[in-house]
């Protein structure tokens, strides 16, 4: 499928999706967000894809929503169109794992998009921020909620109220990213992580993703019950028998996603 604002490649059962608006540091305009939601939906449905990596360029993952496109919009425009709302719900609903591989700027909607992914691997040159306050607005696709859950109230308030950027070391220290890698190794490391996920049983991968995400939606007791029921349910799969037999026989498992 030909896209104008993203590039999609499938390699070793991993879909690598690159945001590609270099002239605007990958700012999220309506075309990009629409194409991204479409490409992720296709990847989710494609049996040849078992994990997804979302990245930008070395200079920018994404520098936020496109300010040029937004600048003249009124309240009625953004409210009536629910700016990016439909597409973001689609992205939040993708069931396969999505790794955000962040190099350079991940600002505003770019930082929020990275946080919607399942985890973030950052290059050493990554810079995260929610600078919407400098434009007279606030985050609009989950930044006040997700950043607060990742890094806690004090740091989230600092980021949203001052608009300052966080470097990769601070992002790792505060739990926003899972690991930091040398900038030149970002894509190989993210692809290796995705391939590692692709080797697992897709049934348990989906169950793990759902169960971790429940932690953001429910109480501890309900979340643990959700986890336990899914843990129990996985004993109905062939892959559970295969995984445990392979361990006992000291060999690699051959999962069949059943
Ligand atoms: C449109 C953008 C852009 C953006 C950069 N560009 N960010 N265009 N929307 N968000 C464009 C610039 O206008 C410029 O185009 C080109 O990309 C290169 O950017 P420079 O500013 O010249 O680069 P540099 O000096 O290196 O500074 C990089 C930067 C800065 C620090 C990232 O560009 C910046 O502050 N950008 C805005 C970041 C921001 O405020 N994001 C939040 C947006 S609001 P020209 O044509 O001049 O070369 C948001 C709300 C989300 O995200 C809610 C959604 C519902």
UniProtKB/TrEMBL annotation:
Q: Tell whether Nucleus is among the UniProt keywords.
A: no
Q: Which InterPro entries match?
A: ClpP/crotonase-like_dom_sf, Enoyl-CoA_hyd/isom_CS, Enoyl-CoA_hydra/iso, Enoyl-CoA_hydra_C
- Keywords tagged on the record: Fatty acid metabolism, Lipid metabolism, Lyase
Under which EC number(s) is this enzyme classified?
4.2.1.17
Q: Is Manganese among the key words of this record?
A: no
> Which biological process terms from the Gene Ontology are attached to this UniProt entry?
fatty acid beta-oxidation
EC top class, as a word: lyase
- Which catalytic reaction applies to this protein? a (3S)-3-hydroxyacyl-CoA = a (2E)-enoyl-CoA + H2O; a 4-saturated-(3S)-3-hydroxyacyl-CoA = a (3E)-enoyl-CoA + H2O
The terms under GO molecular function for this entry are: 3-hydroxyacyl-CoA dehydratase activity
What PROSITE patterns does its record include?
ENOYL_COA_HYDRATASE
SUPFAM superfamilies named among the record's database cross-references: ClpP/crotonase (SSF52096)
Entry's Gene3D superfamilies?
2-enoyl-CoA Hydratase, Chain A, domain 1, Lyase 2-enoyl-coa Hydratase, Chain A, domain 2
Q: Which family does it belong to?
A: Belongs to the enoyl-CoA hydratase/isomerase family.
Function, please? Answer: Could possibly oxidize fatty acids using specific components.
Q: What is this protein called?
A: enoyl-CoA hydratase
Organism in which the protein naturally occurs = Paracoccus siganidrum
């Amino acid at each position: 499928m030909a896209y104008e604002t993203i590039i999609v490649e499938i390699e070793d059962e991993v879909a690598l999706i690159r945001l590609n608006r270099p002239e605007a540091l990958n700012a999220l305009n309506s075309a990009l967000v629409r194409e991204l939601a479409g490409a992720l939906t296709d990847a989710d449905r494609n049996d040849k894809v078992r994990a997804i990596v979302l990245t930008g360029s070395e200079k920018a993952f994404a520098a936020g929503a496109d300010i040029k496109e937004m600048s003249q919009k009124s309240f009625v425009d953004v409210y009536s169109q629910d700016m990016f709302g439909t597409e973001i719900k689609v992205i939040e609903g993708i069931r396969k794992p999505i790794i955000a591989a962040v190099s350079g700027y991940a600002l505003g909607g770019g930082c929020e998009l990275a946080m919607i992914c399942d985890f973030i691997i950052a290059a050493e040159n990554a810079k995260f921020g929610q600078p919407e306050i400098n434009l007279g607005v606030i985050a609009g696709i989950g930044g006040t909620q997700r950043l607060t859950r990742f890094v806690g109230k004090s740091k989230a308030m600092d980021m949203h109220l001052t608009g300052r950027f966080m470097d990769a070391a601070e992002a790792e220290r505060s739990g926003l990213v899972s690991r930091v890698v040398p900038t030149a190794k970002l894509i190989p490391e993210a692809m290796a992580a995705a391939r590692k996920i692709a080797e697992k049983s897709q049934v348990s991968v989906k169950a793990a993703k759902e169960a971790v995400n429940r932690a953001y939606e429910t109480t501890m007791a309900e979340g643990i019950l959700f986890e336990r029921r899914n843990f129990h349910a996985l004993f109905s799969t062939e892959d559970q028998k295969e995984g445990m037999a392979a361990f006992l026989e000291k060999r690699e498992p051959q999962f069949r996603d059943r």
